[in-house]
Design a protein that fits this description.
Layout (H helix, E strand, L loop, with lengths): L1 H22 L6 H17 L1 H55 L3 H6 L11 E3 L5 E3 L3
Antiparallel strand pairs: 1-2
Helix pairs in contact: 1-2, 1-3
Length: 136
């Protein structure tokens, strides 16, 4: 609401200054142009209180929006990351142990003869097509 009040006051100040210039005899397209500059300067001086209230209102809304987005997004991201991590760990653990003797493709080849090399999720393919072990 403070933003609306400040905007209405600025438009009213512009209309008053334009009418005053028109009444003083400036009846051309320059009257509204000059009124815009005069109203801009006058609003800076005369409307400091409403301007500050509008700025505080907008800052408060932006802070609430950031806090709401960050909290909700962080929770959603954490849940999605946990689900993906569980799926990788759950899906990779059986194939690493059982894949050694069954010829399960890359999982068996990467696990080695004993099948104890760790989860397949640690294998990373480079842009040139080579597969390497990710240190993480």
């Amino acid at each position: 609401m403070p933003v609306l009040v400040y905007s209405v006051l600025r438009v009213a100040l512009f209309a008053v200054v334009t009418a005053l210039l028109w009444w003083l005899g400036m009846r051309s397209w320059l009257a509204p142009l000059l009124a815009a500059f005069l109203a801009w300067g006058l609003s800076y001086v005369l409307l400091a209180g409403p301007r500050d209230a509008a700025a505080r209102h907008l800052a408060h809304r932006a802070q609430e929006r950031r806090a709401g987005r960050a909290g909700g997004r962080a929770g959603d991201d954490a849940a999605a990351e946990d689900a993906a991590d569980d799926a990788l760990r759950g899906g990779a653990a059986p194939s690493a142990g059982a894949g050694a003797g069954t010829g399960a493709g890359a999982a068996g080849a990467a696990a080695g003869p004993s099948g104890s090399a760790g989860p397949v999720a640690a294998d990373v393919e480079d842009p040139d097509g080579a597969t390497r072990r990710d240190p993480a």
